[in-house]
Write a structure and sequence with these properties.
- There is one protein chain.
- Strands 1, 2, 3, 4, 5, 6 and 7 form a 7-stranded mixed β-sheet that branches.
- The longest helix has 24 residues.
- The chain starts with 8 loop residues before the first helix and ends with a strand.
- Helix content is 34%, strand content 22%.
- The protein has 3 domains: 139 residues, Methylthiotransferase, N-terminal domain (Rossmann fold, 3-Layer(aba) Sandwich), CATH 3.40.50; 237 residues, pyruvate-formate lyase- activating enzyme; 57 residues, Nucleic acid-binding proteins (OB fold (Dihydrolipoamide Acetyltransferase, E2P), Beta Barrel).
- With 485 residues, it is an alpha/beta fold.
- Helix 10 runs parallel beside helix 11 and helix 14 packs parallel to helix 16.
- The structure holds S-adenosyl-L-homocysteine, iron/sulfur cluster and FE3-S4 cluster (F3S).
Length: 485
């Protein structure tokens, strides 16, 4: 998933129950723009998945049109927004802790407007205003166009809320302001919401019905990124394989239907030097057509995030994932056959309701069957309102959940190391993303399979260019090498 995984991430992963969602928590998003006199200042902090980060860029774009500037320091802001995640209880707890810090600032500066956006806003709605007295405005993910009006309401001394979900909103016409970007890799939202009802998951409740964005606007956004010098785009959706759009073609003289494989092809054809990634694929929906499209185009990366959640068919059924162990294995076999060398990553939940030791073992044997390049692993966290919360008992003791989780982590660490070791002695083509986090003397970048590679910087190669890097050694998270002669 492109730069979704920050350098060093896999090391962190070994230590705690954290996701890619939570890794980038609490990042303040700022843009460099000339400071206008008297403009109001917006501070926006995002939690959760890449879709939330992409939404913050939409929010910034909407408020920039209203004359706001972004700031990286909430203490100098007129408006502080926190774009929130509800996926697990600890994600929500983190947001509440942060809100209490903003509360202290508000006591110092009573004019400060504090807003809660995103999935927690949608889940808790007006309860937020009752529970957290310092919050002035609560806005769900489909209501960001209403922000200027809602801020106006707060300025008149009222509390403001809009948590209406929409069946149509895709913000297709809003060009996101690229916040904190490296100018090389970017995310493009291709759809919103989710129509699957995985029994553990809060997303269908917080993000609403699935809808696909007009492909013309997706292609225009990708082209604009290419024109600005970007070299990699990641197409984002909760289930990209169910992308489907029906409407007029570019000339508006015929009705066309575009599925995900076709969209992927169109984006790949824009520019042969633009790398294309995507996330997330759903095992029940990923088609051979998608796999053949990936195989056909060199610039579509050989990397698929295909969350399995559990290796047991009985647990998968309780999770309402609508595939079995055998079906998942069939999809993995198809990937191996059609795209040899394709990296595969996963999300895995430990200790879902009623999971037995044998079923947990099936998850471990599934991990051995696939040999995941990476995996994001979680302890099951019951979410209010979900099917599982209503129908199943969260009966696996915390101790058992965390022991199972650590067995999964250990296994994944072995596989991550093994997969990375397969690259030692090879020369890989790396898109240089910038200086490494640990040293200014090193560059970092990724190969096609999404492995992070660190190597000594060279004056002859700049970030945004490709480098051929000879891999000398690796850790379980990073490949280390030098630019090949
Ligand atoms: N749309 C993606 C998942 C988005 S949420 C998909 O279908 O794969 C990211 C991950 O969080 C999920 O894959 C799942 O592994 C995890 N997750 C979601 N709800 C959870 C819960 N209640 N407890 C623990 N992990 C959860
Ligand atoms: Fe949640 Fe399932 Fe939708 Fe993914 S596919 S967002 S896990 S309901
Ligand atoms: Fe979290 Fe909402 Fe994303 S619950 S993972 S921010 S869709």
């Amino acid at each position: 998933m492109g730069s979704q995984y920050k350098e060093g991430y896999m090391i962190d992963l070994q230590l705690a129950d954290k996701t890619h969602d939570e890794q980038r928590q609490g990042e303040a998003l700022i843009i460099d723009a000339p400071v206008q006199q008297n403009s109001r200042k917006l501070y926006i902090e995002s939690y959760g998945c890449q879709m939330n980060f992409a939404d913050s860029e939409i929010v910034a774009s909407i408020l920039l049109d209203q004359g706001f500037q972004t700031t990286g320091d909430y203490k100098e802001a007129d408006v502080v927004f926190i774009n929130t995640c509800s996926i697990r209880e600890n994600a929500e707890q983190r947001v509440r802790n942060r809100l209490s810090q903003f509360g202290a600032e508000k006591r110092r500066n009573p004019k400060l407007i504090v807003g809660v956006l995103g999935c927690m806003a949608e889940r808790l709605k007006s309860k937020f205003l009752e529970e957290e007295k310092l919050v002035d405005v609560v806005v769900g993910p489909d209501a960001y166009r209403d922000l200027p009006q809602l801020i106006g309401q707060v300025e008149e001394g009222q509390k403001a809320i809009n948590v209406l979900l929409s069946r149509e909103e895709t913000y297709a016409d809003i060009s996101p302001v690229r916040l904190n970007g490296n100018g090389i890799t970017a995310f493009i939202s291709i759809m919103r919401g989710c129509d699957n009802m995985c029994s553990f998951c809060v997303v269908p409740f917080t993000r609403g019905r699935e809808r696909s964005r007009d492909p013309h606007s997706i292609l225009a956004e990708a082209q604009d990124l290419v024109d600005k010098g970007y070299k990699e785009v990641t197409l984002l959706g909760q289930n990209v394989d169910s992308y489907k759009w029906k409407g007029a073609d570019a000339a508006e003289d015929a009705e066309i239907e575009v599925n995900f494989a076709q969209l992927l092809e169109k984006v790949a054809l824009l520019n042969a030097d633009l790398r294309v990634r995507f996330s997330t694929s759903h095992p029940k929906d990923i088609t051979d057509e998608v796999l053949y499209t990936i195989a056909k185009y060199d610039n579509i990366c050989n990397y698929i995030h295909l969350p399995v959640q559990s290796g047991s068919s009985r647990v998968l059924e309780l999770m309402n994932r609508t595939y079995t162990r055998e079906w998942y294995i069939n999809r993995v076999d198809a990937i191996r056959k059609i795209i040899p060398g394709c990296a595969i990553s996963s999300d895995i939940i430990a200790g879902f309701c009623t999971e037995t030791e044998e079923e947990h073992q099936e998850t471990l044997t599934m991990m051995d069957y696939v040999g995941y390049d990476f995996a994001f692993t979680f302890s099951y966290s019951e979410r209010p309102g979900t099917l599982a919360a209503r129908k199943l008992e969260d009966d696996i003791p915390e101790k058992v959940k965390s022991r199972r989780l650590s067995e999964i982590l250990v296994k994944q660490q072995e596989w991550s190391l093994k997969r990375l070791q397969e690259n030692v002695g090879k020369t890989l083509r790396i898109l240089v993303e910038g200086k490494s986090k640990k040293s200014d003397l090193d560059y970092c970048g990724r190969n096609d399979q999404n492995a992070m590679v660190v190597f000594p910087a060279s004056e002859n190669i700049k970030p945004g260019q490709y480098a051929n890097v000879f891999i000398e050694r690796c850790t379980s998270a990073t490949l280390l090498g030098r630019i090949a002669d």
